[in-house]
Amino acid sequence: MAIYFFYSKAGNVIAVEKGALIHEQWLKQGYQKEFEEVEAATSQAALARFHDIRAEQEKNLWAFTTGPILFSLLALLAYLFFA
Length: 83
Known about the structure:
Elements: E1 2-9, E2 12-17, H1 23-28, E3 32-40, H2 43-82
Antiparallel strand pairs: 1-2, 1-3
């Protein structure tokens, strides 16, 4: 299994194997290197794992933002009705 780096540009994400010598070419073309590195058998499997990681990040962000807001509203309603 190889380690893959990810580069993105305008919503397009590509997986590049760590041993490849073309990293600078992607940067020159305007791609930005992503933080994540994944160990996978193929580049398609690496991209699938990358998208899973990003989906989890979005779910976590949604959970952290909606949870406190919901509980604050419930506390406010409880205070208004029972105070």
